[in-house]
Amino acid sequence: MKRGIFISFEGPDGCGKSTQIGLLGEYLREQGLDVVRVREPGGTPISEKIREIILDKKNSEMSARAEALLYAASRAQLTAEVIEPALKAGSMVLSDRFMDSSIAYQGFGRGLGEGVRLINEFAVGELQPDLTFLLDLSPEKGRARLLKDGEPDRLESEAMSFHRAVYEGYLELSRIYADRYVVVDADRPVEDIAEDIRKAIDSHVLKRA
Ligand code: TYD
Predict the structure, then answer these.
(1) Tens of pLDDT along 136-156?
(2) Could you tell me the residue range of the domain that residue 57 belongs to?
(3) Which of 97, 133, 153 maximizes ligand 1 atoms within 8 Å of its Cβ, making it the mutation to test the pocket?
(4) Does any ligand 1 atom lie closer than 6 A to the CB of residue 13?
(5) How far is CA 126 from the centre of its chain?
(6) Number of independent structural domains in the chain
(7) Residue with CA closest to ligand 1 atom 22
(8) Domain holding 75: CATH number?
(9) 26-57, pLDDT tens digit by residue?
(10) Structure pTM?
(11) Residue 101 C-alpha to ligand 1 middle, in angstroms?
């Protein structure tokens, strides 16, 4: 069985990842591909429990290191229980966030730096996305979109300076991992963004499948 393809979606809060993952999933299924969709933090019963702890606004005393370790623990479980088996079975895995979220939010946003990469390499082993879409939207615009949707969670409630640092982190990651990153301008109509994503998939992925 040929190994599946692992695609992650990254970007600031409010950048529209979930809408785009839904549209890409439909497109890939129409081509007869088997698609598995996961989200982070979460995606398994254990990881969803960890998600509740991380995002609960009552947990205001959580240290930055504890936060980083919880995200990594949630990811370790999701990788072992869902992502690796799906890739082994030949599926396309679409992940709403992966390790780069921790590097951007905990590494750059919280200022924890390189340690975040190390704990995540321990959590997921060799696994890396084959392709990563960065939905590029300024944190100010992301915030404005979120506020329309209701109550922000613990991370979303952070100061704009935090979200700026996260955003700069993403731009840096897209330069470091230019071979797997596709940066898409997310400040446009949904269908235009979806079209760019499909084009990138056609040229990077479907020709390999
Ligand atoms: P979620 O409601 O899933 O937000 P989104 O739809 O934007 O993905 O909440 C996840 C929050 O956790 C989001 O603010 C980003 C943050 N996060 C990290 O700080 N580190 C991580 O490793 C991951 C996966 C998410």
Answers:
(1) 999 999 988 888 888 888 888
(2) 5-204
(3) 97
(4) yes
(5) 17
(6) 1
(7) 102
(8) 3.40.50.300
(9) 999 999 999 999 999 999 999 999 999 999 99
(10) 0.95
(11) 7
